[in-house]
Amino acid sequence: MPKTFWFSMEKVWNFCIFFQVRPLYAGFDNMRLSLNESVLLWPMPAHVTRGKSILALASGFAFGQADGQHISATLTQAFSRYIDIIYEQHSLFQVVSSGLDIPVLEKLLVSLDSSTEELEFEVDESYTLKVPDPSNPNIASLQAATVYGALHGLETFSQLVDYDYSSRSLQIARTPWIIEDYPRFPYRGLLIDTSRHYQPVESIKRVIDSMSFAKLNVLHWHIVDEEAFPIEIPSYPGLWNGAYSYKERYNIEDASEIVEYARARGIHVMPELDVPGHAASWGLGYPQLWPSPQCNEPLDVSKEFTFDVIDGILKDFKKIFPFKFAHLGGDEVDTSCWKNSPVIESWLTSHNLTAQDAYASFVIRAQEIAMKHGFEPVNWEETFNIFPSQLSKQTVVHNWYQSGTCPRAVKAGLRCIMSDQGTWYLDHLDVPWDKFYLTEPHLDITDAAEQELVIGGEVCMWGETVDASDILQTIWPRAAAAAERLWSPLSMTEQGISEETLRRLQTFRCLLNRRGIPAAPVLSFWGTYVFGRVAPSEPGSCFSQ
Amino acid sequence: MPKTFWFSMEKVWNFCIFFQVRPLYAGFDNMRLSLNESVLLWPMPAHVTRGKSILALASGFAFGQADGQHISATLTQAFSRYIDIIYEQHSLFQVVSSGLDIPVLEKLLVSLDSSTEELEFEVDESYTLKVPDPSNPNIASLQAATVYGALHGLETFSQLVDYDYSSRSLQIARTPWIIEDYPRFPYRGLLIDTSRHYQPVESIKRVIDSMSFAKLNVLHWHIVDEEAFPIEIPSYPGLWNGAYSYKERYNIEDASEIVEYARARGIHVMPELDVPGHAASWGLGYPQLWPSPQCNEPLDVSKEFTFDVIDGILKDFKKIFPFKFAHLGGDEVDTSCWKNSPVIESWLTSHNLTAQDAYASFVIRAQEIAMKHGFEPVNWEETFNIFPSQLSKQTVVHNWYQSGTCPRAVKAGLRCIMSDQGTWYLDHLDVPWDKFYLTEPHLDITDAAEQELVIGGEVCMWGETVDASDILQTIWPRAAAAAERLWSPLSMTEQGISEETLRRLQTFRCLLNRRGIPAAPVLSFWGTYVFGRVAPSEPGSCFSQ
């Protein structure tokens, strides 16, 4: 156990002692007061000012678009979702605000600068929320460059609304609020892995819902791996014979539905095809892709058929996944199956290639195929570590293995995504929320132009021990800590964690629970350590666990 | 570890070896064939016959009521739910059955003998499902005495429908099906505990959804306990000061919404007021209920105010909970706080009562109050163990502590509910699914009239380590094993478990996952033991874990 881990544990433990349930929550008025003193939003917006007034939502409270605007279908759907969220999270039947001696909010009106509904990478996600708008005390205004900024504004608005039990009304405390907000990084990702365990479509949709609450915006879909190939590829229909079972499969309609479901929530879906390693399951449909029946990966580098299949998959992917990037893997390639196959060995010799050369040429060729189909390639860091100069200049290097990769990649002029396994791998259950929070994608990168090349970061939910029964509680709340690091200004997150951070994250976790997302306790102890995905160890309030 | 546990583990382990993923699922056609050979329904219906044909659901497939029937609002809601379930669990966009060379099913028509929508205890839950109806090859018929039988029939129908990936159609294999079905016990319960941890309304609704899939029909809501008093009691509004926090509360609208949500799914809600022990949280609002500030339970037996409060709560409960029974607790009463309070001690003396007498008289008086408000009382077994002859003849004894309680209770002419903590406590994570399955409520009761007095059984999800993040995976799939014991004929369940049982339960667990219920793996190992609520230990298929 590294010493830094012990230190961070000590801090968390101190918080825990501080946050004993009863002392804190004895006397609701005190609690409400102190809750009102904090800005309980997650992730924290870039700029917040607020006042000392209070507003109740009117009985017919509604979302709408400002007069004369092109009606956005995406926004109309979102209005309906957020009406449900605002009403359901407080479990009330009716908004009874008549008779209250406080002003009411009748509407939230959205104005968009652009009518485009296309979700492009680096789309403007900024928004300005005023509750109420200075021009009208009964109307809140949400202004955004695009509908995708407006979605974030609706989420922020929903987090301002509280249920008042005595009046049975929905209220917003500390008005007027003026919130100007925008993300720090354009790429704020979460990886899911549907090869080690199949995730039903319903389960993936819940992941997407929850990502939108934390303002994450890229679902990196590690669809296939050596264990299973669950997705339909019309060009090579035998491939999904590699699924675990007949029922554990995605047809192209499923995949398209997931992409559209995500888009409607401002989330890109990046497909991954991890080649040439991590691909043994391909051969259950096409055994000729295996170096030999006994030695099943990496994919046979010597056959044109291998690249035909990759071409077919990426051609089919392009019809399903509009995202700019495709992930081509390239990690953990052990070439011994190539060297042990007489046919491949003689092919290597006749082409005057070492196995390492062949690995590089395989990756480069896959990149060329991806680019031909209109994708920019993302590759795991081994490709950069081993043959940096051969990679396409369009490559995005995906760090995972070690610290220091992004600094080297951006110095070489390539873009980078940070996913340091020591702190941003969600399957590492021993990494507590504060380590996720304290991870900085710009670490050791001081040059502004180089910093620009770090497009963001991603937390990775590898699927070895994660199926539909535990994926959400393994992801949350720890992913939220990374989400704030990726969204909020560095000036805010570099302050580190405090009681206020913990309290806000606990509040966000309880919000997820109310919305049906089974986020685990923030302070979930395994013995005396805070772990991910641990049941609460004793009775207590959601807000203190 | 008792020897029987080892034996059951050995059996499960053998199954596990038998059910290795790849060998079993290599070749989908074989798998489909063998799946078709089994009746993959859970819980198993009383009588099933089937054929060798196949039907595809027509594009416009719909549920409806037979001509001339009173339109049931409950059924209309259920039709909409089951259309969603049938379509969503197979993740398809459209039902494309044209061009298939197999007959199509256009409708399922429901006939009800009674138009009542009232959910009474022992309502007729039987149904007969014919797919297709012998009179029309394109229509399935579902006949039931009441809408609550029809709901079970819809659930069974939904479990017959499978998605065919090649034709993109929904199909039912092995038609014609004729299923005649009815429950073995009228009381098939699940306890949830919202005192040790608050469960958001959304979380309770998911529990109710999942109960309906397993044909459980009583949600025993252990609302309050010593840790927290989360529910609003209009007669004594200070009581919910005992909630963990301002936000962790149910107002009466929430509670009523839960009751109606459950009713629409054929599920009763039984409230519990656990007196005189397990009630310390009451005093956060009314400290005079405590024997002393230092000694907070049992409730002060010497004050009339105590019984006024119980009266107020039960009066308010009657407006919310229409169920015939209210649970009055009565377990684990340690009377030392009474004996240590000079005021109570002198009250006992002046009334010539031992503390034990006072405990009995407290329980009896609570029973009288409950009966005055129209409830029949349920009490935990200590009340029967300690003062059997003083209990009302209307009492239902709720076994939990030891085996043999129900045999004694029914011999004494009282009704009984079986919840043996050794096998039906879901918080006992070391109890695997097969122990749940093999638990028999009629154990050691041979007289038919006495057997009749066992109204059923209940699995208990105590909340010490269960909040919204882990309740569903702690309940499922183990609760399903008990659900089959309580629903299916004894002639079937007394056969014990077999590979077929395990396979069916795994299939049901995967069905729950597809429907968004995060049921844990059936064979979830903790080391070499099968435990409840454990993450899958390695990659694999849902159907084999």
TrEMBL record, chains A, B:
Ranges where the Glycoside hydrolase family 20 catalytic domain occurs: 185-489
Q: What's one Pfam family the UniProt record gives for this protein? A: Glyco_hydro_20
What's the protein here called? Answer: Beta-hexosaminidase
Organism listed in the record = Sphagnum jensenii
Write down the superkingdom of origin: Eukaryota
> Its catalytic activity?
Hydrolysis of terminal non-reducing N-acetyl-D-hexosamine residues in N-acetyl-beta-D-hexosaminides
Q: Does the keyword Hydrolase apply?
A: yes
Record lineage: Eukaryota, Viridiplantae, Streptophyta, Embryophyta, Bryophyta
Signal peptide range? none
